[in-house]
Amino acid sequence: MSTSKVFTEFTEGLRAINSSPDGNGPGKALGERFKNATSSVYDMAAAGSAKGDIWNWGMHDDAVLAEIREVIPGFARYDTDGFSEQLYFLALREVPLGLDEYAGKSVLEVGCGLGEGLNFLSRLVPGAELTGLDLSTAAIDRAKARLSRSGGLTFVHGDAENLPFEDDSLDVVVNIESSHTYPDFERFLAEVARVLKPGGWLTHIDTFTTGRYELLTRLKKESGPLEWVHERDISAEVRTAIRRRMTPGSHFRRAFDAKRMPLPARVLGEEARKAIFGAKFAGFPESRRTRLLKKAGLVPALTALPDSYRHHVARKVQGLAP
Ligand SMILES: C[S@@+](CC[C@H](N)C(=O)[O-])C[C@H]1O[C@@H](n2cnc3c(N)ncnc32)[C@H](O)[C@@H]1O
């Protein structure tokens, strides 16, 4: 399939998923087509990736950063702006388990991308069994090649709506900036509830359109195996990180400039980055060049744009009647 057709199917699917007033997905057939487009988009992103790339918008919160620096004293010397890692840290921080309680616990990240965020978590919770799952085979191949080690950190290819894990088998499921592309969000939550052990935790961070947020709010109210215990709107913190990243000379921009790529790919990549990495969410107006490239189908024309970015934590209730 051509790049422009992949982008068209991806953006149409995103619109169908995120713009319906009640957040309901696009139906099974369109959903499966959309998943193929999603995996192709992230396969392309993986092909142009470098070691250390994390694919989320990031957040900036002084308190979170100070805590990371306390737990990892060398963090300031990492070659990163630290914004994406803050989202990962937040994901575990709000789960009521101490970092020293993770030894021997099984943690799954659904939608792990290149696995670098999970690799960061492995520094916070040594001794935990961490598994990353993603729909993109190219992302998983890279994660395996760059990061897999025997025991501790493994990666599998799979679909969030069909998790290849036994019932009641995992302690914690992490999901960061991925679920807005799942056609059937309710099914994903049912899968998480199935694979978590009773008393296990889901920590979920993502963008929300109004419809998608209404859907989650409705699902949270339904009595089911997940009991929702925490919610925080982190839109302001995410916007701060994006604005800092878009500033000329930022670490994010320098890392992109350092990638080896032909000029056309650099121009397209720069515009796609603005479209994909939240520039509009953070209030940056679209340039004429971006609009033209979108019209030509050369960068994704995202339309169902989110209006908030939120963190939720849920626990699988214990002792459910069979
Ligand atoms: C924006 S990236 C975020 C990656 C990572 N969580 C992070 O924060 O950097 C979204 C990821 O979700 C994955 N994804 C999308 N749909 C998926 C699905 N149905 N099942 C599993 N992974 C999926 C994509 O392939 C991509 O790697």
Short description:
With 322 residues, the protein is of the alpha/beta class. Helices cover 44% and strands 16% of the residues.
Walk me through this protein's architecture.
This protein has a single domain (1-322), classed as Rossmann fold, CATH 3.40.50. It has a seven-stranded mixed β-sheet. It contains twelve helices and seven strands. The protein is α/β, with parallel strands linked by helices and 322 residues long. It has helices spanning 3-19, 28-47, 62-71, 83-93, 116-124, 137-147, 185-195, 210-221, 235-246, 251-257, 263-276, 288-295; strands spanning 106-110, 129-134, 153-157, 170-176, 196-208, 226-233, 308-316. Helix 6 links the parallel strand 2 and strand 3 (153-157). The longest helix has 20 residues, at 28-47. The protein is globular. S-adenosylmethionine is lined by residues 35, 38, 42, 54-56, 110-113, 117, 134-136, 139, 159-161, 176-178, 181-182. Residues 108-202 form the Methyltransferase type domain. It comes from Streptantibioticus cattleyicolor (strain ATCC 35852 / DSM 46488 / JCM 4925 / NBRC 14057 / NRRL 8057).
